[in-house]
Design goal:
Pfam families: Aldedh. This protein is an alpha/beta fold and 407 residues long. The chain has 14 helices and 15 strands. Bound molecules: adenosine-5'-diphosphate.
Amino acid sequence: MALAKNVRLCKRASLHHRPKPARGRILHKFADLVEQHVEELAALDTVDAGKLFAMGKLVDIPGGANLLRYYAGAADKVHGETLKMARPCHGYTLKEPVGVVGHIVPWNYPTTMFFFKASPALAAGCTMVVKPAEQTPLSALFYAHLAKLAGVPDGVLNVVPGFGPTAGAAISSHMDIDKVSFTGSTEVGRLVMEAAAKSNLKPVSLELGGKSPVIVFDDADLDTAVNLVHMASYTNKGEICVAGSRIYVQEGIYDAFVKKATEMAKKSVVGDPFNPRVHQGPQIDKEQYEKILKYIDIGKREGATLVTGGKPCGENGTVEEAIQKANSTRYGLAAGIVTKNIDVANTVSRSIRAGAIWINCYLGFDPDVPFGGYKMSGFGKDMGMDALEKYLHTKAVVTPLYNTPWL
Ligand code: ADP
């Protein structure tokens, strides 16, 4: 019921009929308020998710404000095109907000995911219901409060905390929600798409899991490669959809790499995420913690084969083999390549079926860089101008010229 009421409010309230410069100004004001409350917001995400407070303060919260500013600048540049029609007609397109959007977000990046979804949708003129993950509702509620202070009209940005099978499912099956933007697991993404298909055929965009490869070639600088792989694997306690969870290292550098990577992992300090000397806080909850232990166990069992062989799995270590291995997954979210050879970097980046390729870097995120997967990692982009498109409909308008009768 609460959701239905919100949706009715949403339909009336949109920012769509505001002059667009005003929409941009409101989003900038929202960003100002986020920046003014950086400490409280970072603390909320740390308490909820066990994320490092320092990272929240330096990266997640300012990153949310940056996304708001990026789309604030885009809000007055939403326009269609004039069409070159074969018949003597005046034809043009209008870009219109898709309407009421349901955003279902996960717990690993409560702030980043909130702004991945809400900022382009606000700039497009949509109204929305955001459902934060049940583990991490606090910052989303605070953002709703700041949005109101910034001048976002009541009913435009609604936050409805709750569990997935109830609050989440209500969004994906609701007849008055026009679009769902989801980030989470592949299994739940499938449920969301099914519910959308069975209700009003609302379009969905899904950013799902990944199993991203990082390929380290022989010519890579050892320290760079180790640092990069460490970051790819352990950032945010490994609770990140683009985690580099399959590391392929070419034979020539393999032994030195494993030694150094092990030393670096051992130096990592796990503890209280508010302590600035700690590198890694607790996992989000006991369920994830136990899941990780289980995977380590499976790894040990599977690792026995590797120990007996005592060598890397691959025999040749060619570029073709690396590409084939990188692609040997149902997922296609991201991939890392570490090499100084530009030909290898270019060839491999074009051959890997994934939505983001990071060469000699990892986590190459930026507001202007569209992010989203291939294959079972989903479809539809967050960030960049692609994300704005996601919240817009194209309407084609045609009228005859010269008073010519149509028939
Ligand atoms: P993760 O694997 O990251 O825990 P989930 O896919 O389980 O991700 O959850 C991501 C988001 O999807 C959360 O906000 C969760 O509440 C929501 N969710 C879970 N189940 C459903 C469902 N059946 N319908 C809609 N949303 C759901």
